[in-house]
Amino acid sequence: MKNSDNTLFLPITPPAQAEGEIVAVQQDGEFIVQVNGCCWRVLRAASCLLQPERGDRVLLHSVNQQLWLLAVLVRAKPQQPAVLHCESDLHLSTRGSINLHSQKFQVRAQQGECDIDEMQYRGTKLSAWVSVSRLFGKQCESVWQSISQFSQRLLRHTEQCEQVRAGQLDVKTEDFTRLHSRNTLISSKSLTKVDAKQIHMG
Description:
This protein is an all-beta fold.
């Protein structure tokens, strides 16, 4: 018996277990696998997370006249990226650690959530492009050799005390500088200089 695509299907009992080659991938999720000149329609088992492709050598097993694709034995194109696929959510659980080693690591998702009690990051360079960033916490400490910050508008609000300790402090504005408080103290050990075209005091 031949199908519309001239694929040969023989009305015989499927093998209990066999090795075959995928000759076609159907849109409905079935695979056409050739075993010893015979073609069989098979379904992928849930345990086979590696996405089978055309030309792959696969392991088949028969249960109640239904052939199941259990595993991919040899990939037809080993140089192509391997795809792990499942129809539902995938959870990895272990009592030990999970280690990932690769030359390049990519993660893509519409939504993400990371919940880690304690995390350490070590790297040479970190770049991030975001539209909105929000950070909430109780305490923040950072140590840098150099910091450069550029923005069109910066608002900083401190409810209690803000202190600046610097070897030299240089403040320059293009148009207007204003200091206002209930009490203002300006002191220096050697020199205090006020220079302007007009100086108004009082």
